[in-house]
Amino acid sequence: MTYLLTKTEKKHYPDMIVQANEITLAKYSYDLIEKRVLYIIIDKVRKKYIEELPVVENTSEDLFGNLTIRFTPSELKEVDNMTRIYDRLNQFKQKSFEINNEEEWASINLLTRASHKKKENYFEMEISPHALQFFVELSERFTAYSLSVALSFGSIYTQRFYELCQMWRNKGYFEYSVDELRELFGLKDSYKTYGEFKRAVIDKAQKELYKSFSNNSSPQSDVYFKYEIKEKGGKKNNKIKDLIFYIYDASENLYGNWAEGDYLYNIRLKLTPLFKNDAGYIERVLNGLKGKEIPYINSVWVKIEDKLVYYASKEVEERAKVIRTILKGDFQLF
To answer: Looking at the whole model, is its pTM more than 0.70?
Structure first.
């Protein structure tokens, strides 16, 4: 199934693009300019081949299936340092994506050529059919986000967390170990201690993302995150192991004006008819939610509501079994 933007999304975010989740979760180490180049590629490729717009500006395709994309220095937020752009485009051309999932392993170079037309002052990138096929075939899995917001960030780590928040926004949270994040961000040999990684990567991204989220100027992010330590390693090294990130979503206003107590009250109302003879189970669930971040509690509430609607025609015992299964499987709630 190909994802096409809804009319509402197009109205509120005219520059919204979609990026394959495999790319969001791909392991790579690109700097800020290189990531901005990647955003431009994703935008053009998907508009031309997935959304099939009749005209996609600054693109052309040759007889061999190579796609040429043109852009200006201002689109990279770099206008005074051509040497730096040349260097980063050259580095970008030499790098490849490594994708390794259940279905395949692949190493893919995105560019076959990069050039700067000095008189007209624009750049050209040529993308091979293999890379184009990679982007197009991944259309079934996507992450939607605003191009102008993504380009506005001054840190590559903010961009990566922005993508992750968009990818998991419907769930309301996501979890990673520190080592997984290091590998995902291409930082296996950097920021060796948790404290260094926290300050230089997570906290820096959180601060910039929240600043964009809370300001009233354009472009403005519609998500930001909070996080907490989920689990520590062995007692000997007391090493931080897992982190849980809670996503705050402004564009869909998922949480309204509900506080924790409102959620717990309404969750109790939903569970009581299902577990009349097991009041202790209800209390354990509610106690397990107390003190959690609102996005996490919201995701529990939404999942309960969705399942009860879907299984509305089933007997109470079967609905209770479904709810107990998803609370334990998805949220580790008893």
So the answer is: no
